[in-house]
Amino acid sequence: MASAARLFASARLARPSLAAKVPAQARGYATAPASGGANWPLLLSAAGAAGIGAYAYLQYDPSVKKEISAKAHQAEDKAKALVSKGEAKVKDVQAQTDAGVGISALISDAWTPFTLIKVEDYNHNTKRYHFSFGEDGEDKVAGGHPASCLVVKSPDGEDKVVDAKGKPVIRPYTPISPPDQKGSIELLIKEYKDGKITPYMASMKVGQQLMFKGPIQKYKYQPNTFDKGLAIAGGSGITPMYQLITHSLNIPEDKTKWTLLFSNVTEKDILLKDEWDALASQYPDRLEVKYVLDKEPKGWKGETGFITTSTINKVFPRSSEDKVQAFVCGPPPQVASLAGPKDGMKQGELQGALKELGFTSDNVFKF
User: Fold this and answer.
1) Which of 81, 185, 236, 330 sits in a 20 to 30 Å window from 267, CA-based?
2) What is d(CA 236, CA 219) in angstroms, rounded to the nearest whole number?
């Protein structure tokens, strides 16, 4: 009996060394390419050493055997998951390198802090935010294939933004900077007084941090898959259209022609107007921009009122031979009137003006 007690004591001493090795091995493997595989022989041999010491004791007290065995399996499964996660991240980094798109500063399944380095007032309720990836991220990019978005939340602490249930408030945004821009990322965000994240961001000072995760693929654009693209946006819903269309226009072999139908309350509310006008001037054969205002100023020559079937017919004529694709992004009531409401994260049934005009669910995408 004394011999069994000594064996069990040695097992208790062996277990801490194993517990220390498993997390350290997983963390190292998650941040750097492995030099010789997952090292499972090392993990299993360490587990075996502890198991031999415990075996004799278990023969004397079988009642605890089931519980200890279950915990051992749980520890093994957790270690495998950590190593598997590390392998996936290494492969993801290698894939980005092979594709020549640069290493992404964003992580799809973990929050990363970026530092606010510049804030520009864009208009009366919108600001342009510049976030740095830090000294270690000067050669990194945001990454992602258009059209992609990212999600943000406030850091932990006294000022953490939470909802009524105490959970972190998370919001999606589409960067206006190119996916391959190195060292930083730019967001154009309108402040909503009754919002959660936008008032918080509007109060941020240079040097503060915001938490980021992504990129999240929304729609994977392929050049020349349709002849004409119709982008209908309202308010801050313009940002995914900007990412998508600028990407297309910058592909020399892409012949897709675009029509942007952009609605706002007043002329001052039009986001990225200078950029859109410059693009329309630079690519007259590929991009036509039409602004729609609820409250037009004197002498306004653009469209007015709500976007309807007649508005779309007027600015986006097409023949039965044209292969078309429509994109919609804006306030939920606008999206619902044009293409039907989204079903959570799903597209939902196609309804509204676009369905009346003969579009199908295959050629309408709701951001």
Assistant:
1) 185
2) 18
